[in-house]
Amino acid sequence: MEAAHHHKLSNRPWRSSAHSLLGLLFVVVILSLASFSDAETHYHEFIQATPVKRLCRTHSTITVNGQFPGPTLEVRDGDSLVIKAINQARYNITLHWHGVRQLRNPWADGPVYVTQCPIQPGATYTYRFTIQNQEGTLWWHAHSQWLRATVYGALIIYPRLGKPYPFPMPKREFPVLLGEWWDRNPMDVLKLALFTETTVFPVGAGETILLRIINAALEQELFFSVANHMLTVVAADAAYTKPFTTNVIMISPGQTTNVLLTANQAPGRYYMAARAYQTAQNAAFDNTTTTAILQYKSAPCGGKKGQPASTPILPSLPAFNDTATATAFTAQFRSPWKVKVPLQVDENLFFTVGLGLINCSRPSPRCQGPNGTRFTTSINNVSFVLPRANSLMQAYYQNMPGVFTTDFPPSPPIKFDYTGNVSRGLWQPVKATKLYKLKYGSQVQIVMQDTSIVTTEDHPMHLHGYQFAVVGMGFGNFDARRDTPKFNLVDPPMRNTIGTPPGGWVAIRFVADNPGVWLMHCHLDSHLIWGLAMSFLVENGVGELQTVQPPPLDLPRC
Ligand code: C2O
């Protein structure tokens, strides 16, 4: 039953990713395993290094142990991780363990200026955390400026020893990391030659394999499909799902999706392919198809008498704007069993999410919007500004005034037809560092409503420190009276990242049982940088088990 742990993945994650803005550090992971009873502690050391000078320009990159993407971390539920980050580079950095609940331990969460000050060049910080009742696929990435373009990797959490998967044991498992692939050239400079080689996933005829698909792209939702093969979705964001079968998946930045694939076709070679799902109107994006090959071990090797092997078959992917397919896919998610969903709501929050425009006082390259404006983003008309004097969590813990306020609005300041023709006067948000306070244990509902300001768009919304139930979604304006009765309060999927349908809304519920400051934001990187974020301040409850742990002594200072 514990055979999952015997699968050492000798293959590398599927590389499909690069980005032109390259960071400035090398991250080295030294992995050692120490065994204490059945829970383990995994020690890692991350060392950062130097820029690369090429073509008269200083290119800089970030790799982990010389690998891109970074190494796959493999742990079991109940294990602890101790990751020492030593920054020998020129840029500030932090690391985030996307989807790890970090119970009472915001200090290890990582978003810069939210739960910690950055690890400055020359400084060190050790992330210490334990996986508590989570299993499946997560990932880790840098959480400061744009550094996550290249600083990321898979975090695979196997069940505790002796605990089986709730589905037949797959014969093999492969992490599939989908990243930005629209600018490959910088990676040539960095000699990441492997990047351009097509990855091959070997499979035996009749075998069932598990693909752990991670969307690590900065800005792009993706469709993913395998030629001639059906995919059975069994988990997402480190939570199991009621299995359902599909020929295409849609995955948003930040999300993970585990699928089973049975090699039940004629022995041969089949393309796995990913391509953009793009919902913003009039926005540039790359429509390139990125591929890897599923290869049957019994497939003919190289054709007869030196002729080339047969060309793999390409799957057909939906059109880039096929929202109907994306929506139908997402609508199929259920938890495999009844889950604990708050039935009474103490905090009923309604968040408008979307774009906006700021008037530029003078022309500048940042003013890419129409009529000399600059793009911005907001939630409830507040465009989130990170503090600089301290992190939010440290300021809160130290009672340092003046860093943030706790008056984040529970609903938009003005009601309007969110998905209609929005009057221009409502396009410019205010910048602020506002938090929303939640009492420990309060039952929270958030309806996230996309707006049509500038453009409607799918915003993959990620909440740190929590897994939430996705109880409903729809198009147009949310109507509490009409839509609430249709919520799934029995077996909704549990996630950490969920998209607002373009021009629609999504409703989530969770219990505020994790004290600390927790960021919620759009996982499209530019939207986060422009302000599509807010933070919750979840107060301590009663007693030690409902109280934030003391900060580690080496927590960086600003
Ligand atoms: Cu994966 Cu705050 O992000």
From TrEMBL:
Keywords: Apoplast, Copper, Glycoprotein, Lignin degradation, Metal-binding, Oxidoreductase, Repeat, Secreted, Signal. Pfam families: Cu-oxidase, Cu-oxidase_2, Cu-oxidase_3. Its cofactor is Cu cation. One of its GO terms (molecular function) is copper ion binding. CDD domains: CuRO_1_LCC_plant, CuRO_2_LCC_plant, CuRO_3_LCC_plant. One of its GO terms (biological process) is lignin catabolic process. Its main location: secreted. PANTHER family: LACCASE-13, MULTI-COPPER OXIDASE. This is laccase. It comes from Punica granatum.
